Amino acid sequence: MAEGILGLGQGQAGALNSDLIERLKAVDRKATVEPIEKKLEKFESEKKVISDVTTKVNELYDAVKVFSLNQSTGTNAFQQKSANVSGDGVVFDSDDLSALKTGSLRVEVKELAQKDVWQSNPISGSKTDTVNAGIITINGTNIDTSKMSYTKLTEEINKISGVQASLVDSSDGKFRLAIKSTETGTANKINFDSSSGKISDGAAKLFGNIAQKDEWQTAINVSKDQFVNAGIITINGKEIDTANKDYETLINEINNTADIGVKASLVDSSDGKFRLSIQSTETGADKKIDFKVSGGSISAGALALFGNNDKSALDNSLNVVEAKDNTIDGANNVLTAQDMQLKADGVDYSSSSNTVTIDGLKITATKETGDSTINIENDTTTLSAQMKNFADKFNELRATIENEIYSADASVDDKDALRNMLETVKSVLFGSGNSGDNSIFGYGFTFDEKNGNLNFNPKDFESAIKDGTKDLEALFAGVDEKKGIGTILDETISVSGITKSLIDYELNMLSREDALNKEKEVAEASLDSKYSIMSQQFAAYGIMINQMEASFSGLKMMIQQSMVSK
């Protein structure tokens, strides 16, 4: 009777164990935490939907961008050009073919641009031999060759901007120094002039002839003590009377005359006699000996000593060495610098290179006497494919959005946002832009009312543009004052339009997800705290029950003993 009244029985504290607490907690979690987790799981599906929509929006944007006025580079689809070339000797190129004017252009090449190339006279010996040609000036830079080898000379020349030097072996065991300009054109012709404006000594010795002094010798062999008696001879404006003077005396007087610019001497002849020689002291054509008197006629003394048989004029054969400046041999200029010359539709053009640009068209001559014609036309061959791609991308976007918003298992939180995006695109697409009554349905497009697709018929499109694309361009591209549907749709989708709305949606979605994660953390923390306290309470209840069971156990024994004693 006592056991039934107490109702606890032996070991009832064990019933309040951790398993019971976990079962209670699981029931509570199902009602508080799991609803939040289900919402979070839905975010992954929502993210995928928004990602898919964003992809389709971007693809539609790319498809419509080609029809827009807003081109970051080049031109839109309606201004594309094609080029056909006939002939040879000319290569045509353009960074932007669509920017070229339509029409034809004939190009006739007259001359190709060339580098300037010089090759020295043949050189015997070793490339390590000393050049010793004095100072060579190349494009204003002086190089002293007096103690420099040919190999070292090429190294020094190669330090000069615009030229390149090398040593070229020949079959006879000799070699030549070659110097060439690095670029073509007359502007790059190699200049060997020194600062004085004359050919430098080194250039003359290597590529031509060194400057010479002027020298005259008498034809008559004389003895040193023989009297001249040739009258007055004028030398470079200085008068010297030869009367009653032997040749040695005359020579001394000439050589002692200040600023006369010559040196006189007696040259041995084979018969034991001598010839009178008068030589300029410096080289150069401007140092030629002048025998004229102030009136301009040849002095009597000069005619007597260096004149012809009748003494009427100087005998040029007695000018045994003629005064000359440094010269370079044109034959050593193995390739002469020249500009490219061509005619384009009869107009003359020249260029230091073999390329010239005319109205955005880059023309490169590859062959002298080349003759080629380029025809540039409007190119509409890609328009049909671009229009079909545009329709396809619209259909893909429409299907992606509508499949989501009309689905019973839709993942998006805000269907109206997607619905509004699609309606915005449709309102622009099925409008006429600013082109009056013109619309896409006049250019091979039809609307399928059953599935909502925009269909495109290439044959109908080609038929619609057979007379030109002016109206089509007005419909899609328009002008700044009257933008077409392609331009409007481009701007509608761009970063400030639908694309921005999608970005804002994603940001809002991330914010909602973050809020739910925090809500889940709070719910789980609250649940953990609740059942931690409950666990502690159950432990206390267990102790109390055990104590009560111990007390009831003693009472039970007393009752049993009393019953036995009766």
TrEMBL record:
Keyword Cytoplasm set for record: no
GO cellular component annotations of the record: bacterial-type flagellum filament cap; bacterial-type flagellum hook; extracellular region
InterPro entries in UniProt: FliD, FliD_C, FliD_N
Domain (Flagellar hook-associated protein 2 N-terminal) ranges: 18-116
Keyword Secreted among record annotations: yes
Keywords recorded for this protein, A-Z: Bacterial flagellum, Cell projection, Cilium, Coiled coil, Flagellum, Secreted
Compartment annotation: Secreted; Bacterial flagellum
Gene Ontology biological process: bacterial-type flagellum-dependent cell motility; cell adhesion
Occurrences of domain Flagellar hook-associated protein 2 C-terminal (ranges): 337-549
Main location: secreted
Family indicated by similarity: Belongs to the FliD family.
Self-association state and partner proteins as the record states: Homopentamer.
Function: Required for morphogenesis and for the elongation of the flagellar filament by facilitating polymerization of the flagellin monomers at the tip of growing filament. Forms a capping structure, which prevents flagellin subunits (transported through the central channel of the flagellum) from leaking out without polymerization at the distal end.
Protein name: Flagellar hook-associated protein 2
Organism the protein comes from: Arcobacter sp. AZ-2023
Gene from which this protein is expressed: fliD
